[in-house]
Amino acid sequence: METTEEKKCCETRKCSCFCHRVPGLLIALFGVAILLGVLEVISAKAAVITIAILIILFGLKKMCVGMCKCCDKA
Structure pTM? Predict the structure, then answer.
């Protein structure tokens, strides 16, 4: 039998809150930093620093994965 329990927004993949968009945004910025470095729009050193910062931010986001208020709805 099926129950009519409400699923968390993360389980239905319909959540549009900022905390669920951050990983995709960081990956896109990572790609932009690489592209700008390869096309020599920014120096190679600036590209490496930018990529390192984005990797750190991505890691911090992964550490805070359980702190989303919209996912704690029961």
Answer: 0.68
